[in-house]
Here is the input.
Amino acid sequence: MYPKHIKVGLILSSCTLLLSGCFDSNNTRSLQQHTADATAAAKRDAGAIARGVVEGLTRKGPTDINTASAQDLEKLPGVTAAKAQAIIAGRPYDNTSQLVKRHILSKVQYNNIRAQIGVK
Here is the structure.
């Protein structure tokens, strides 16, 4: 199954080619330019999709707050060097919500990273 952006590019290219018979030779340059633009857009979209797939495949899952380094914790949104050190100092954790219960993170800070952290 092709992603939506690629489908749109292919449809636009196909329509352009099908309609080419409706134009006289004076419009050939314009048709060529429109086809080139549609192809370039499809190529850009396909590249972005491929980079997203690679990024998704290389992610290693949630950050384990019991074993993550300070550098890894600081990659989480809103986690400063001081917060990372506080998380490390509070180890071990039975679950991620203990970050709030132990007053290491506010509820808002916790909600911002909750989906990206875990405990093994």
Observations:
- Residues 4-58 form one domain.
- The chain has a mean pLDDT of 85.
